[in-house]
Specification:
Shape: globular
Structural class: alpha/beta
Function: Catalyzes the reversible conversion of ribose-5-phosphate to ribulose 5-phosphate.
Largest sheet: 6 strands, mixed
Pathway: Carbohydrate degradation; pentose phosphate pathway; D-ribose 5-phosphate from D-ribulose 5-phosphate (non-oxidative stage): step 1/1
Radius of gyration: 17 Å
Order of helices and strands: HEHEHEEEHEEHEEEEHEEEE
Catalytic activity: aldehydo-D-ribose 5-phosphate = D-ribulose 5-phosphate
Strand content: 15-25%
Number of helices: 6
Family: Belongs to the ribose 5-phosphate isomerase family.
InterPro entries: NagB/RpiA_transferase-like (IPR037171), Ribose5P_isomerase_typA_subgr (IPR020672), Ribose5P_isomerase_type_A (IPR004788)
CATH architecture of the largest domain: 3-Layer(aba) Sandwich
Helix content: 25-40%
């Protein structure tokens, strides 16, 4: 049986084959994407040329270390594909993302892409979103007002994400509130309502964005899931 790291390497190696010469590719953030970058770096050494749009400073650094050419989102019209991970995936391929703290850039890059291809191991597949705390990226000014609003409206106690006993700060200087909804009945409605709260920059629900999900299993199998449904 494969370890979780071995599963991540398995799906990353398979997904790297999607990248072809002269493509513009969004590169996500997280532990699975790390192995994707390593595999793409090996292919670059063998002659592959493509442009990467990183979704975080961490991803940009890893790509640069592998001599993968970088471009800015403002410098391109559209991306051929974005490859990223996810924290939860429901049967309709709706996602929770943002565990790595890069949800805003991840969503912007995904929205500019012709396809969003998600990498995951079987533990990320769920019947219903919500067990993984939903991240909200918020402006530091007045973040407690957002926290109180979430508590009052949804009876959910949002916690401020920290790092080294200090508030975690995103690449754009924002804080993140992690919201344990437990069960999200209507993710499409919730994402709209959350983004309407003053002070919320965006949330970790990725609704009708994923085109395909490559799932790796401990027995060495992989499975590709395709999105044929929509959530409203």
């Amino acid at each position: 049986m494969l370890t979780q790291d071995e599963i991540k390497q398995l799906v990353a190696k398979q997904a790297a084959q999607l990248v072809q010469n002269n493509m513009t590719v969004g590169i996500g953030t997280g532990s699975t994407v790390y192995w994707l970058i390593m595999e793409l770096g090996s292919r670059v050494k063998q002659g592959l040329f493509f442009r990467a749009i990183p979704t975080s400073k961490k991803t940009a650094t890893l790509c640069a270390q592998q001599n993968i050419p970088l471009a800015a989102l403002n410098d391109v019209t559209a991306l051929d594909i974005t490859i990223d991970g996810a924290d939860e995936i429901d049967p309709n391929l709706q996602l929770i993302k943002g565990g790595g703290g890069a949800l805003l850039q991840e969503k912007m890059v995904a929205a500019a892409s012709r396809e969003l291809f998600i990498l995951a191991d079987e533990t990320k597949l769920v019947r219903q979103l919500g067990k993984f705390p939903l991240p909200l990226e918020v402006i530091p000014f007045g973040w407690k007002q957002v926290q109180r609003h979430i508590q009052a409206t949804y009876n959910v106690k949002a916690s401020l994400r920290t790092k080294d006993d200090q508030p975690f700060v995103s690449d754009h200087g924002h804080y993140i509130l992690d919201c344990p909804f437990n069960k999200i009945e209507h993710p499409g409605i919730l994402t709209y309502d959350l983004n309407a709260i003053p002070g919320v920059v965006d949330n970790g629900l990725f609704i009708n964005m994923a085109d395909m999900v490559l799932v790796g299993y401990a027995d060495g199998r992989t499975e590709t899931l395709q999105n044929n449904t929509a959530e409203s």
